[in-house]
Structure to design on (47 residues):
């Protein structure tokens, strides 16, 4: 079975969500977490 993990994140001002998909729940969770951190870091450069 394929697992989909949704992580909702915030920096206190902006909210975003990321999704990880895999047959392995840990891998799916890692993908979603990594994407969330990268997105957050890329969008805070202007602050």
């Amino acid at each position: 079975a394929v697992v989909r993990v949704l992580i909702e994140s915030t920096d206190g001002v902006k909210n975003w969500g990321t999704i990880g998909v895999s047959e392995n729940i840990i891998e799916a969770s890692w993908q979603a977490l990594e994407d969330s951190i990268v997105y957050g870091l890329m969008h805070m450069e202007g602050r």
Q: What stands out?
A: The CA atoms of residues 24 and 46 lie 36 Å apart. The chain has one domain: 3-42. The radius of gyration is 12 Å. The chain has one helix and two strands.
